């Protein structure tokens, strides 16, 4: 996550928060239920990638910090790209989206004085 934060910062963005969906860390629950470790072989949510509660936390943090974009470390499916912005309230990107955008930004000439474009509204 530190590398992703550095990529965002290098593009003029500011990291306003970090969220991790932890799975398989809870032990046995009262009554002998296996807890989160029983879900380790199940896929992440096909709709939102993360749990409903975690996505709600992200939406609340986005409102509180006025973030304009949320960047996910994981790849996002087309469905997640459609659903998450509706829930969170802003565009969502994956790390590979940032890398693809960087590859498409024209580089300034090696001998020129031009500065690469600065986009303070991207984070």
TrEMBL record:
Disordered: annotated segments: 21-45, 98-123
- Which InterPro entries does the UniProt record give? GTPase_HflX_N
Regions of biased composition (Gly residues) lie at 25-35
Region forming the signal peptide: none
What positions does the domain GTPase HflX N-terminal occupy?
A: 44-98
Q: What is this protein called?
A: GTPase HflX N-terminal domain-containing protein
Q: Which organism is it from?
A: Actinomadura craniellae
The lineage is: Bacteria, Bacillati, Actinomycetota, Actinomycetes, Streptosporangiales
